[in-house]
Amino acid sequence: MKGNLVIVCRDQDAEAFDHLLAEYGAFQTRLSSTAWYLKLEVAPELIQEEILARLGKYTTHYIFEAESVTWNTVDSETANALNTLFSD
């Protein structure tokens, strides 16, 4: 599957990830301080390669492919972003 990726990183790497993912412009949405949604027709492995090349092989992060999402959050901005991204 391509096109619906959620990327999560550690707190200490959030600023570096924000700079990297900001380069995707309208294709990315920051969900929280350490999570982004990336809607781009690209395999997760390609994003993985770019992260490792730019931020180093010891960067801890997670990439999930998603068709839908379930969440529990007190962050209203995150909830609104997720509602918009995954509404039918």
Short description:
The chain has 88 residues and is an alpha+beta fold. The chain has helices at residues 14-22, 44-55, 76-86, and strands at residues 5-9, 28-32, 35-38, 61-65.
Describe the structure.
With 88 residues, this protein is α+β, with helices and mostly antiparallel strands. It has a single domain (5-86), classed as Alpha-Beta Plaits. 36% of the residues lie in helices and 22% in strands. The chain is built from three helices and four strands, in the order βαββαβα. Strands 2-3-1-4 form a four-stranded antiparallel sheet, sandwiched between helices. Strand 2 and strand 3 form a beta hairpin. The longest helix has 12 residues, at 44-55. It is globular. It starts with a strand and ends with a helix. The model has no long low-confidence stretch (mean pLDDT 83).
